[in-house]
Amino acid sequence: MEKELKLMKGNEAIAEAAIRAGVDGYFGYPITPQSEIIEYLMEANPEKTTGMVVLQAESEVAAINMVYGGAACGKKVMTSSSSPGISLKQEGITYIAGAELPCLIVNVVRGGPGLGTIQPAQSDYFQAVKGGGHGDYHLIVLAPSSVQEMADFVELAFDLAFKYRNPAMILSDGAIGQMMEKVELKPLKKRNEILPEWATTGKPETRKRNIITSLDLDPNAQEQFNHKLIAKYREIEEKEVRFEEFETKDADYIFVAYGTSARICQKAVQLARKEGIKVGLLRPITLFPFPKKRLNELASQVKGMLAVELSAGQMVEDVMISANGKTRVQHYGRMGGMIFTPEEVVDNLKKFIKGE
Amino acid sequence: MAEITQKDIIKPENLVYRKSKVLTDNVMHYCPGCGHGTAHRTLAEVIEEEGLQSKTVGVTPVGCSVLMYNYLDVDFQEAAHGRAPALATAIKRLLPDRFVFTYQGDGDLAAIGTAETIHTCNRGENILIVFINNGIYGMTGGQMAPTTLVGMKSSTSPFGRDQKTMGAPIKMADIVALLPGTCFVTRQSVNTAAGVRKLKKALKKAVEYQKKELGTCFIEVVSNCPSNWKMTPVESNKWMEEHMFPMYPLGDIKVPAEE
């Protein structure tokens, strides 16, 4: 497969990019608005071409545990789902984090709580960046804002996951999953033939047995392990922060927005600037690690930061932590699958400026 | 006549039993009289005799045998409660030439992991499921299991299991035998030397069928739990024969068509 330019849905782009990135296995369960991922893979049938396994599990719980099993073999494995399904996967995700296994989990977020809607939302931010399941852990969280990034982040997520032996998540939403855009697909990458030395692949006489577990009954040893995880997360925060800035140089105000919201805010910046309001946009690409340092710098420069999210106000807490009291921080959002227009964002920026 | 010393007795030609090389030297944490140790040893012997040590990936459950990876010298993954067959599914799909098994208790396999058990068997994954059924939750301290007998007392059925409110014991081997995906379903025990020999034979068959990719092999081992049944080991074996075996009769339930 050569480099190719195609018009694709975000969900399809993830599926195609997975095949081309040399993924060894996909384990999924259908749920709107991301079922195209497993449908695309089943139709593409990569087992015949690249050898990639595609399996429809009996539940999201089984799918994430298949990911655990595959990841523990040192294979590049992934799953995808949408909010209610991701909640079900949390058990598996915390075990994977505890066993320090690399893998990719895609969440094409829809509105909640509960069964909620099938329309786009960003209301799973806390769940994605603060851990999600039980215990002290973090995922590496990437937030694509275009179909191109849906494709590109598959490989990036695996690179980071293997580099740090940590699960990675692509936190998307129903809008980016469903919309069609031009996407440049990378040429086919061969699947890894050499597996990591920690993988459970059958014990040759030359090494000790490998045990993949998240269990340690000795509290001292467990605490030592927790410290090791913390050190890993600090290193990730030090080295892997990714973000994009738009018109921030002379900005008096900053929108902080990711994914779909960032696209809308980019338009809102242009509209507001026409009216003479000097506003810029910081778009976090990694939600964990969060661009705290850069936001803290910007907090010294601007008069306020508006966190614009499709939620009741989740990322705004990280913006507040980043600003650390240096500037005003407020949230503007819509929920339940409703999406703000650029004009609505500008109106709310004006209210924010007035101190409302 | 010269006196026979210990040195004269310990000779290779006099050796009638030795520990499997696949068993580690770690002291097992199981209670005296528990069947887990014998089941572990039998599986270790089969792995050694079949030359599978370098090809085996095992999956341990949550329950008494959660620490099985300390006792068998093969690669292991430790699953969340009930999810072992899902892990094993992926391992086998991604490494098809390895020998893959799960080892699960009754709470793990027949309660919280029912969906994973049924669907793994239904897909006919080429793995071995070893199911230790002692009718009780051992590790958490003797609570009622899905396989607890009617009338049997446990810490969560202190007046005995009442079928009307707590359901009847579930016969997992019979259920999975109905699925086309399973090729070999059998029920064995380890309370007698003959039983251990039969279990070993069944395990060897499972190895063969997995190599031939005939489908899922499901071996139930009806076992005891002296500590939580509050009996001596001898009493518990007697009680198992008198009460467990009538409910869970030993023998093959399903064998491959070619047999």
Description of the molecule:
The complex is a heterodimer of chains A (356) and B (259). By secondary structure, chain A is α/β, with parallel strands linked by helices. Chain A folds into two domains: 4-202 and 229-237, Rossmann fold, CATH 3.40.50; 243-354, Rossmann fold. Chain A is 41% helix and 21% strand. Chain A has a seven-stranded mixed beta sheet with strand order 3-2-4-5-7-6-13, sandwiched between helices. Chain A has a five-stranded mixed beta sheet with strand order 10-12-11-14-15, sandwiched between helices. In chain A, strand 14, helix 11 (315-323) and strand 15 (328-333) form a beta-alpha-beta unit. The mean pLDDT of chain A is 97. With 259 residues, chain B is an alpha/beta fold. Chain B has ten helices and nine strands. In chain B, the strands form two sheets. Chain B has a seven-stranded mixed beta sheet with strand order 2-1-3-4-8-7-9, sandwiched between helices. A two-stranded antiparallel ribbon of chain B has the order 5-6. The radius of gyration of chain B is 19 Å and the shape is globular. Chain B starts with 5 loop residues before the first helix and ends in a 5-residue tail after the last strand. The model of chain B has no long low-confidence stretch (mean pLDDT 96). Classes of the chains: A alpha/beta (356), B alpha/beta (259). At the A-B interface, helix 3, helix 4 and strand 9 of A face strand 1, strand 2, helix 3 and helix 5 of B.
Quick summary of this structure?
Chain A has 356 residues and is α/β, with parallel strands linked by helices. Chain A has 12 helices and 15 strands.
Question: Could you list some keywords that capture this structure?
Answer:
heterodimer; A: 356 residues; alpha/beta; Rossmann fold; 2 domains; seven-stranded mixed beta sheet; five-stranded mixed beta sheet; 41% helix; globular; B: alpha/beta
